[in-house]
Amino acid sequence: MARILAFLISFIVILYGVWPYYGLYRLDQALSEPDAAAIAPFVDLPAIQAHYQQRLGAGVAQIIPESDRGKVPMLDWLADGLRQLGDKALTQVISIDLVRGILREAAVRSTDKRPAYFLAGIDYAFFTSWNGFEVRLGESPDATRVLMRRDGLDWRITDITQASTEVTAPREPGATQE
């Protein structure tokens, strides 16, 4: 009986360990589909938007430090306006199409294989906690980090960070950088 119990526990642990990698495989398949909506089950869009809003707020705080708040009413008004505009813009700009573009672009940058596919670009993928998983596309410092959280029976993307977009919202896919 102890052997059976040990076998079952080992099987469950191995299954749990393989689970997010299977999710990455399914995400790779969805990214190859022509319709961007194919990745929607793998993306927690409100969580991604919230993380970008936090980074945008940190950017505003760097421009207008909290130590200056209250001293100059015009700076307070400007900081509040920037936050409100940023929040509204992020909810409109960060979409499934944009997430798909970011993931595809990261895969192209991180692998020499053509056509570039998501799994080929992965440099690192491992658990950050029992319900957190990090994927790194490319090598540091230019790596794109994709954070995933377990949501029910699926693993969903909750944040994407790029070295060039730590504080600001991501640019549109295909846009030229000046």
Description:
The protein is α+β, with helices and mostly antiparallel strands. It has a domain at 46-165. Helix content is 48%, strand content 17%. The longest helix has 30 residues, at 2-31. The protein is globular, with a radius of gyration of 20 Å. Residues 165-178 have low confidence and may be disordered.
Level of helix content? Answer: 40-55%
* Overall radius of gyration: 20 Å
Q: Assign the structural class, choosing from mainly alpha, mainly beta, alpha/beta, alpha+beta, or little secondary structure.
A: alpha+beta
Spans of at least 5 consecutive residues whose pLDDT stays below 50 are 165-178
Global outline? globular
Number of helices: 4
The count of β-strands is 4
Hey, roughly how much beta strand do the residues contain? Answer: 15-25%
List the helices and strands in order. HHHHEEEE
Distance between the termini: 66 Å
Average pLDDT, rounded to a whole number, is 81
Across the major sheet, the strand order is: 1-2-3-4
Largest sheet: 4 strands, antiparallel
Summarize this, please?
With 178 residues, the protein is of the alpha+beta class. The chain is 48% helix and 17% strand.
Can you give keywords for this protein?
178 residues, alpha+beta, 4-stranded antiparallel β-sheet, 48% helix, 17% strand, globular, disordered C terminus
